[in-house]
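Typical record is below.
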Amino acid sequence: MSKVAVITGSNGGIGSALVRTYLDDRYFVIGLDRSPFEHPLRESHTVIDVDLLLFSKDPLYRELVLKEIVGSFPEVITKLVIINNAAEQILKPVPEIEWQDWETSFGVNTAAPFFLVQGLIQQLKVSRGHVINISSIHAKLTKPNFVCYASSKSALEALTRSLAIELSPMGISVNAVAPAAILTGMLKAGFKREPEKLSELESYHPSKSIGMPEDISVFIKNLTEQEGGFLTGSLLEFNGGIAGCLYDPR
């Protein structure tokens, strides 16, 4: 087993779909999450309990986590994929936002992805690896109460472009994927009291559907199969066409 995928937020809706997609293609998968899988899904699946906010702030804790990740690697890596999927979504109106909300949002959503890539840069370089940062439609098109989340995802997209400029000459591809609504457990829980609103959300998308975790995981997997390094510094949208819609008074 010489292909390796490191996936943050690996126990969430998109994260767990990514884990299964890469395992199915015979990758060795290292999942990072505050609430990791109770048991690895296969022998080629390792789970590590990680607090990404602490990872972003504390150099000593970061060093320990990186050491555990590297210690889980096979002896020889022919390909390394890092998928920064974990995110904190703090929803508050402007008057209620505090410093801790900013620290958490940018620590988990922006700084942690940077430090994970920085810490594994040598392995990425040797294997001509891939980095995928999971952004959000909120980076460009947002709504009330999403100030911290939208800002941190916009910063993640800027980070993607900047990393690509410095790392692409080393043979490392760095790209971002910005999904709209994906049918995860978290999304369904948000509509538990008003299930009809979920159908309404579907209707807003020109595709008349909400994205499925399995579909976006396959999409991301295909991106990391690109060879040659020319696909880098790009933002790819996965949004059912909703980013092209204009809603205004009739």
Q: What stands out?
A: The chain has a mean pLDDT of 93.
